Amino acid sequence: MKPRALLINPWIYDFSAYNLWYRPLGLLYIASLLRTNGVDVSFIDCLEEEAGAIHAGHLTPGKMKPDGEGTYTRERIEKPPPLRMIPRNYHRFGLPPARVREKLGSLARPDVILLTTMLTYWYPGLFEMIALVREIFTGVPVVIGGNYVTLCPEHAKKSGADFLLPGEGEKTLPALFRHLLGIDMQNLPDHDNLDSYPHPAFDLLDRPASLPIMTSRGCPFRCSYCASHLLHPAFRRRDPILVADEIALWHHRFGTRNFSFYDDALLVDSRNMAIPLLEEIIRRGLPLQFHCPNGLHLREITPEISRLMRKAGFKTIRFGFETSDLVRQKQTGGKVNNAELAEALKNLKNAGFPTGEMGIYILCGLPGQTQEEVAESIRHVQSLGARPILAEYSPIPGTGLWEDAVASSCYPIAAEPLFHNNTLLPCRNESLTIDSYRRLKLLARKRKGA
Predict the structure, then answer these.
(1) What CATH number is given for 208-445 in this structure?
(2) Domain 4-181: which CATH class?
(3) What is the spatial distance between Cα 66 and Cα 19, in angstroms, rounded to a whole number?
(4) Strands 142-145 and 163-165
(5) What number of other Cβ atoms are within 10 A of residue 328's Cβ?
(6) Going by DSSP bridges, is the β-strand pair 12-14/90-93 parallel, antiparallel, or unpaired?
(7) Which among 262, 192, 194 is positioned nearest to 226, based on CA atoms?
(8) For residue range 88-141, what is the model confidence (pLDDT) as tens digits?
(9) pLDDT per residue over 246-286, tens digit each?
(10) What pLDDT sits at residue 208?
(11) Are 167 and 143 in contact (CB under 8 A)?
């Protein structure tokens, strides 16, 4: 009999959450790796909206757009003790617990349970799921991995899991499965060659109307607010033609027409990735749309790249600008400056991208940041005809800004990951308060000339 593994993407517990084409891509890569090594895999995604689901009156159902973007089903719940003083409603996002319990009860007893979670302050949903699977599958080993475990390993020891796997699971799972189940996993990828990884197990998703595509792991930049190099220390890329092959595969197999890229460096060194990938997508003539919600590198937006992105079907494009302050640009990594922003936007407009489709992320709430710096950044983006999008800063352990964040925050962020929540503006100060942040949000919504 094949060994059985149950993989679970748990609920989000937060003040707010919105689905920007998110899928638990790392977990689905693990599912595929296990399958290729003779493991029977079951999968539960608590964030996946079920077609035709009827929810009780105390739940607010999610609304998903045809392209895969939308809201999650949510239920208002009691705030965890550290957050009780925050005057906002707190929610469980995802499937109702009764439905999750029903799904778990329908499964054969697994030999191991693997769970993940993305943001450090989403751990309450992970902890709740661990308690639930321990109740239903008493004695089954529980393993947790993902960003939270990698960035907060000491705190993760409080989760109740039996094993913690920080870092990339493809590297650490083989030894664990040998220890737990006596399985010697022979079909393993070359970790330096992302094209040797089996495709993610997207067939486990109920409705693959939109899918994420990985072109790389890691990032060549070392921005002081970003954890990419902590999660993936080495920057590795795939063959662009094989990426196009994968996109075509999912389109033909599932009819998927919307794809998202979350890569930190999709456009970096475009001659070896973005340009051949875009040209191949165009050559195949598939009716697809592409979304980049994570923030592309503006420095790479040449006239050629702009034209190819437009022709290939890029619909949602977001860019990381962070600030118009020249000093802070250098302090945070120097990946883009004001002149490069203006040049990139000019190239995009000339390629035919409407102004409303060009979203520029501006970081708000960095240690020592003032209200005026954020306001000036907003006005600068608006003056160039683009749409500023405020991105509230979340402190991340191990990043270049972490020590400054610990020193400047009014919360004990080093001891409690819940205080990493960007809703709190954890590093706000007298010059950038919650009230001034609200005014900044209104300013960001104004159109040029309004």
Answers:
(1) 3.20.20.70
(2) alpha beta
(3) 13
(4) parallel
(5) 17
(6) antiparallel
(7) 262
(8) 999 999 999 999 999 999 999 999 999 999 999 999 999 999 999 999 999 999
(9) 999 999 999 999 999 998 789 999 999 999 999 999 999 99
(10) 85
(11) no
Would you say 140 and 109 are in contact if contact means Cβ atoms under 8 Å apart?
Answer: yes
Q: Is this prediction's pTM over 0.85?
A: yes
Note the residue count of the chain.
Answer: 450
What is the arrangement of strands in the sheet containing 90-93, beginning at the earlier edge strand?
A: 12-14, 90-93, 74-77
* Angle separating helix axes 97-105 and 123-136, nearest 10 degrees: 40
Q: Residues with Cβ < 8 Å from 271, sequence gap 6 or more?
A: none
Tokens read off for 291: 């979304």
Same topology, domains 4-181 and 208-445? Answer is no
> What's the rounded Cα separation, in Å, for the pair 149 and 164?
7
Residues of the chain scoring pLDDT < 50: 449-450
Question: What is the distance between the alpha carbons of residues 89 and 79, in angstroms, rounded to a whole number?
Answer: 8
Task: Provide the token pair at 144.
Answer: 């947790």
Domain ranges of the chain: 4-181, 208-445
Least Cα distance to 9 among 114, 165, 103 occurs for 114
The encoded tokens of residue 241 equal 């033609």
**Do 415 and 421 form a contact (C-beta atoms < 8 A)?**
no
